[in-house]
Amino acid sequence: MIVPTTKDLAEAAGVSLATVDRVLNDRPNVSQKTRDKVQAAIEQIGFVRNLAAVNLLRNKPYRFRFILPKRGDLYLKELIQQVEHANKSLRSDMTFADVEQLDMGDPHLVANYISSIDPSDLDGLAIMAPESPPVRDAISRLNERGVHIVQFLSAQENLEQLDFVGVNNYAAGATAAKIVGKFSGSKTGSIMIISETMLSSDSIERRHGFDAVINARFENLRPLPSLETYGEVSRAKRIIGNQLEHCDDIVGVYIMSSEARIPIEVICEKLNLNDITVVVHERTPFSEAALKNDQIDAIIAQNPGHAVRSALRILRARSEAREPNSAQESIRIEILLDENL
Amino acid sequence: MIVPTTKDLAEAAGVSLATVDRVLNDRPNVSQKTRDKVQAAIEQIGFVRNLAAVNLLRNKPYRFRFILPKRGDLYLKELIQQVEHANKSLRSDMTFADVEQLDMGDPHLVANYISSIDPSDLDGLAIMAPESPPVRDAISRLNERGVHIVQFLSAQENLEQLDFVGVNNYAAGATAAKIVGKFSGSKTGSIMIISETMLSSDSIERRHGFDAVINARFENLRPLPSLETYGEVSRAKRIIGNQLEHCDDIVGVYIMSSEARIPIEVICEKLNLNDITVVVHERTPFSEAALKNDQIDAIIAQNPGHAVRSALRILRARSEAREPNSAQESIRIEILLDENL
DNA sequence: CAAAAAATGATGTACGTACCTCATTTTTCT
DNA sequence: AGAAAAATGAGGTACGTACATCATTTTTTG
């Protein structure tokens, strides 16, 4: 099998290599007639740029950075490991990735960090940060200065023009609701809903999706107000304990945030999880174990490895002025049961 | 950021480029001492082969072929489209893929085709074929003649040394059972189980996984004997009709084969699908629509795009004598509900 | 119709690696 | 010690493309 090169293309088009180069790289001083001729030859012989040759010639290291929260539990750890792993396996591809962890409680700090980035140091940025106007503006400005941006797992409003990697959180909440509803059978009762914080748009959207499905299809179930743990054990104990005192008909629990460990451990002390349906987000060593010993019934997950690789592929494509292969880059809402772990 | 080249490596190791080349490519006439010296320098400066340069130099088109069944419905069509799409988008990578469809009812024909392949025409083969000794032997022989093989979605016994792309079918069946069981609530009754054929190991394993979970966890449910449609509408009508006459307590349906259309259309005529739980395999335009209008409750899917790309990545890696990145290549058992489509 | 402008051709270099040949040095063996 | 063998060095070529420079031809303009 012979793969046509620029030389073959020149011959087929009846022009010189120099002209082929002018057409392929959009250089000036080529007549429209010649452009058409070359274009026709491209179609005819099926010419495709040899990526290896282009990359070799460019021979530019691509430096990407993930901005992730400083505080977090197992899922965060997994994300970081995935970035490190990708960094290693993509070195031969001239792709480098690292992680910067910031205190997401302070939007100005985050915005300042983003603003302080020197575009000549970095080709692209994958950002996971709660919504906030200063952060959004800093992202916009950095993007205008030529750094490619991917919104990573968590999107800022009004930045739809930027690439996003992650799931539709409304659909994720709806999926959780469907499982809680169906798994509860014909039982009647309340659903406890726990989040780290309801300030993030992720949680809000998940909650909306959850309520929509429960209200539409499971009138026997009543979703309770969201409890916010702020990631603190003592607070979690207090508010969950409080709710359990006032409410003795709990048939299901939905933990909306990605770190289920604290809430589950707290609830365990007061409630027999075997009897109720528990759905959590994100696969971690903890949630996996909980699934296996029946403490929880399902995990709604977005694969962190996929997410990291997808973000890097998109950044790489943008850096090379290619269009990302969108079909490959959508992140699925995975449903994990004991059986398909 | 500076990426070290072989030249830097030679300098760091205090040897010539020629010696570096001898070490990197395992050529003879290098003392162990020098090998160690170069190896140490590789670690120290973090040298990694530039893939683009290697590929450019090799500059060999990789030709891969998918062997798929001749008969099939929507899922098969989707697979073929995915191969075609991959073929287009991987041309710039010197990777070419095509499809050969064979009549899987005739193992000798399949084996003959495989045996007739000229290793100088093809670098790798992805095979989806029912189990059979002649086919298995033909695969083995072709592999020994230097053609890389991936068992695609369907595995042959005793060929564990070959790469496999696809899901664990026992787990897939178990997952289906969990959903049928949980979604049925506290109802008591029978589960209709439909397959195109029970001769394939896929179906057998799915059935085993299904029964294991139902028997262990859902004593209110009774799985019926498998019905085989052979992909024929008239036969499907007859055997499904037969079973419905003798059995009036059906609360669930599990369609094990990848083409759910015929069975669903037949059952629809006799049963109100809204009242019972229906689980099928594989996402197709039909199953998607059925999920949306509530004819079915869940789809157990293996993403055909992932599967095709994964097979090609593995074949490419093997052709270049690299190890495939196994973490990335496992195919998940996806559970699709109306909410997370 | 000549001069200016635009279009095209001819040719060279570079990217990093693999593979080759030939010369030279070092080690091993008798 | 001397010959044979092994190890190492020096240097060139090629892969396909991008990006130069300069020469030459064709077209446009005044």
Characterization of the model:
The structure is a homodimer of 341-residue chains. With 341 residues, chain A is an alpha/beta fold. In chain A, 47% of the residues lie in helices and 18% in strands. The first copy, chain A, has 14 helices and eleven strands. The radius of gyration of chain A is 25 Å and the shape is elongated. The mean pLDDT of chain A is 94. At the A-B interface, helix 4 and helix 8 of A face helix 4 and helix 8 of B. Chain A binds a DNA duplex (30 and 30 nucleotides) through helix 2 and helix 4.
Q: Regarding quaternary structure, how should these chains be classified?
A: homodimer
Biggest interface, chains and residue tallies: A-B, 49 and 49 residues
Q: Which geometry of chain A do the CA atoms define? A: elongated
The biggest sheet of chain A, with number of strands, parallel, antiparallel or mixed sense and barrel status, is: 6 strands, mixed
| String of helices and strands of chain A | HHHHEHEHEHEEHEHEHEHEHEHHE
- Structural class, judged by helices and strands of chain A? alpha/beta
Main sheet strand line-up of chain A: 7-6-8-9-10-11
State the low-pLDDT regions of chain A, or none.
Answer: none
